[in-house]
Model the fold of this input.
Amino acid sequence: MSHSRRQFITRGVTFVGAGLAAPRFLLGRGSGIARAAGRGNGKILVVVEMNGGNDGLNTVVPFTDPRYSQYRRSLALAPGSLVPLTDSLGLHPSLASLKGLYDQNRVAIVQGVGYPSPNLSHFRSTEIWQTAEPDAIASTGWLGRYLDTIAIPGSTMLDAINIGFETPAVLATATSAGVASIDSFASYTIAGDGAQPQDDANKFSAFAGLYDDVCGEEATLDFIANTGLAAYESSGVISQVADDYVPAVAYPEDPFSQSLLKIAQLIGANLGTDIYVTGLGSFDTHANQAGDHARLLQWLSDGLAAFHQDVVAHGRGDDVLVMTFSEFGRRVNENESFGTDHGTAAPLFLLGNAVSGGIYGDHPSLVNLDDNYDLIHGIDFRSVYATVLRHWLQVEPESILGSAFEDIGFL
Done:
């Protein structure tokens, strides 16, 4: 059966929840399509974006430093309310579940993470963290460049999944089509009138024909056709994922925890996907910070704890690493609206069986501040990425990041 562009349009064939970043997807669960020699090692990285700029000073709290309460007259957390880490540091009380995993040596806290000459624009700083290019505008993300190294021409492997509507810059690739954004399993589908093309050649031609009058380059048409074909083939697989998976723990009902449940379901389906991205927010707490920050950290902590327990119970604990990041921290001093404005350095968390738990790096000084009276970072965020790339994804970081960075040692 030959399907023309007009037939596809009149039958209402659409990408829903897939877009032009649709995957070159696995054509059946557990089919075991091989990677290229030396590419991909079966390890899974889950990246959590704490979007909006998390207040690091009220996340890992230097409660014995008198300057903390001086700068934070209303927002300072009482020492007795904190979850103790050391004699001088405590976690926000909402992070109790994460502290339980820290006590099991499963959580690394990397303090004072940032980069030189920090940019305090949400858009630009997020772009810097996602592309790992502070000094240039980059067209690919740091994980997108990793995906390009493991991509196999013509493969139907889905290498990365973002939970959400729009694929983030961190997954932007130069050549790989194996990236999808999925907001819900129900919406990830190709809708039509039920007619089925009989072979891949007809399907490929049909998807190419959808765009042949607006895109003249053969390579681009091939890309679109392949992603369309992959989405067409994958939609039935995704729709079954939720039905087949039984979580080992009850996940909280908040949106972030539910996104982690989706990732656990996708991992359980053995799709062969290396990278998952999700997020929560907004941490842009310019006013009345206390309540919103507590709620978001509660979502983060309880969701990550449930997710870790779930993947461990399903026998995947050794295969999964979680890394958090936020585009910047908040100012040292609170503002007049009982909030904090855009700042610089902040901590991030890594979670997993492979993590060598503990605290890495020093807490930023509250005495030696920058020219804007803000925190000075001690660890370059690209050092975190380099450690993950070398020890988890097992590629040379220089090939992805362009330069050598310190190995922090949390893996």
Remarks:
- The chain has one domain: 24-189+251-401.
- The longest strand covers residues 107-114.
